[in-house]
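Weekly modeling sync, notes
Attendees: AB, CL, MP (scribe)

Item 1: holo prediction request
CL wants a bound-state model with (R)-mevalonate before deciding which constructs to order. AB pointed out that an apo prediction alone won't tell us much about the pocket. Agreed to run with the ligand included and paste results into these notes for async review.

Input as submitted:
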Amino acid sequence: MSDIKTISGFSKLSKSDKIKWVVKHFYKDPEQVMQELMSWWHRDEEQQKLLDGFSENTISNFPMPFGIAPNFLINGKAYAVPMVIEESSVVAAASSAAKYWMDRGGFHAQVLGMKKVGQVHFTWKGEMRKLESVFEELKTELRKDAAPITANMEKRGGGVLDIELVNFAHLEEGYYQLKVTFDTCDSMGANFINSALESFAKTLDRFISDHPIFDEGVERDISIIMSILSNYTPECLVRAWVECPVENLGPFSSGLDAALLAEKFRKAVRIAHLDPHRAATHNKGIFNGIDAVVLATANDFRAVEACGHTYAARDGQYRSLSQCTVENGLFRFWLDIPLALGTVGGLTKLHPIAKHSLELLGHPTAEELMMIVASVGLAQNFAAVRSLVTTGIQQGHMKMHLANILNHLGAKGQEVEKAMAYFDGKVISFTGVREFLETLRQKQAAKVV
Ligand code: MEV
């Protein structure tokens, strides 16, 4: 029996026919949904074609807010940072932390390493000692065969840094890896790494099958399981930090003493080091900032997230990515995070807005972008923890929440102003705001009559 909600050949339909099929089968008001989806098509056909080319089966575009967090002073240079994020308060919090630290020396950042990683996973029943004895020979072959792929990257100053043989046979019978480190310069390098690894896999297979050191039979029998980059790049690492004398942390409108704030802040970060439940939320706050800049520059936020969370669990327990000390009257707050980012290649220059993001940041190198992104992550974390240990997070959030509810209920001009004034300091709920607006509107209507 055929299910009308499934289809074969969807990808071959025209874009309009794809929409028609979707709205007909999944919506109560197909015509209206179709109009709305089509209203988000770009008016310029060429631009729309470009966007459609990024993915498959596209039927429309999905708008996200593109905001700016100004006043980021990083290593003495001022940036206005582009952020793409749908969560209210994030850009406001980043901007507030940027301004706060601008008056206290700004953010400092340093790239600690740029190494990317890729692996060829294989199984083999031969004698490891023999493979090790000819490994230098194998490495020469691997590099020689991959030269057409690596030549261009080498001209740019990067390429294959090292190739190691890793023995996992104690964990899984006959399982080994070629673990390869790369320098991909200003590109994220995924395509380059994967192409090089696939070349390595072929060479490895041939080498084992042909080399006279290996006996006929099982020793010639290698099975390549897979060749793929690793998104865990702990040596593609950046540190961002802020510091100032404790007394310079104030004054605070809440009247909180600077020394008390420093201590509560330090404890809050320490708690995120000790407790994975808090660590996940703490790090989520960091990624609020990081992902927003990563998206705005058309970098791969899934890769960045996967890597960051793996790094956060590097000692076996998931912990805070940031750390804080209060020693000898000095408040120090820092973030170490691996970030595999690119400022060339991928969508960085193709995406119509991402290229403007990069221009806004002054066409940064990958290293500079790593420092900017880490600083925004730290700023976001600072703003969140500062709110948490002082006023609580809801105060700021609720203002934005109220604005969203008012928007949803179609409030305009005076209605918005009156609602903002009325709910100042009060608990905000959707029902409460709706009732407030209804009463206001009834009063207005009565006046008009
Ligand atoms: C909300 O998106 C992020 C926070 O929960 C982060 C934190 O708790 O540190 C506020």
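Recorded for review: Residues 366-389 form the longest helix (24 residues).
Action items: CL to compare against the apo run; MP to circulate these notes.
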